[in-house]
Amino acid sequence: MPERLLEVDDLSVHFATEDGMVRAVDGVSFALDRGEVLGVVGESGSGKSVTAMTIMGLTRGVNAKFGGAVRYQGTDLLQVSDTEMQNYRGNEIGMIFQDPMTSLNPVYRVGEQITEAIRAHEQIDKRQARKRAVELLKQVGIPNPESRVDDFPHQFSGGMRQRAMIAMALSCNPAILIADEPTTALDVTIQAQIIELIGRLKRDFDSAVIMITHDLGVVADIADEILVMYAGRVVEAAGTRDLFYDPQMPYTWGLLGSIPRLDRPRPERLYSIKGAPPSLINAPPGCKFRPRCPHAFEKCVEEPRLEQRVETPGHLDRCWLDVEYKRAHRGSMIHGDTSEAA
Question: Which of 116, 153, 172, 298 has the fewest Cβ atoms surrounding its Cβ within 10 A?
Fold first, then answer.
């Protein structure tokens, strides 16, 4: 049996503001085993990053209210103190933060920032830590790491900065690596290299990976399971193949339809989901995707549960439409025609 590393059970994260309570994460549940890659996909504001930062203990504050549990090897991380959390953050769970352009401190050398992360968790001297930093930069594909370790962030390209962030996240060999939009602002060639690198490091270190992105194409080749989030909730969860070949949630259809396809005739316009994500303070009643969904009907004013159907074992979705209807009508959103997705 695979080793269970992380269990997120009915996690909710709400922030009190002057305008009202922001329900950034509202009842998210998933599990992660050693060696598994979990893709978390959704638009900006869907709760992906807040979920990840809560796992890392980075959303704690006087205006934050938490519910549910985040269990790392049986320990609920929501209940440990800030001091205890430092033993898990970086050491057991590493994170590649969004935007490598701003995540590195511009006034410190890249090597200094990596050695600082190493020495925060291990009792080794600067010389040993620097040697480890050079080895890490070499592992992530930085050329001439012996000299580049003394460069400042502005001397690195965007792709190299992202690799340096990955090296820092891996500096203490964490059991779980959280990659939050690791390919944002990078060209497609560098994106492919970063994805391949994360996959290789996962195999080398036998780590589990949570890959957060807004692009389903990024996780297509690397993820074992995919969660689709919308308005702070999981609206679909399935194995990667099942989600791509038999998607059950209209929101997922829209995400798939917005990916350019090279195996089909070029459309005049790339499909886009109409409207904007809902307010997390005053969310619409019933299905949160209802105001933007072209397939909404009377039942959608009631809140659907995340559940699996008899026709789709192991595949969870949050939608009132029956499976037969979905398979007959989703082609218009995914392919721009009426053909079936499968």
Answer: 298
DSSP-assigned letters across all residues of 72-122: ETTEETTTS-HHHHTTTBTTTEEEE-S-HHHHS-TTS-HHHHHHHHHHHHS
Helix (H, G, I), strand (E, B) or coil at 143: coil
C-alpha span between 124 and 127 (Å, rounded): 8
Nearest CA among 64, 68, 65 for reference residue 30: 68
If phi over 0 gives left and psi between -120 and 50 gives alpha, with beta otherwise, what is residue 65?
beta
Across-strand partners of 213? Answer: 41
Query: Region 271-278: what's the mean pLDDT?
Result: 88
Contact call for residues 90 and 176 (beta carbons, < 8 A): no
Condensed to tens digits (0 to 9), the pLDDT of residues 72-98 reads 999 999 999 999 998 999 889 999 888
Distance in Å from the first CA to the final CA of the chain: 31
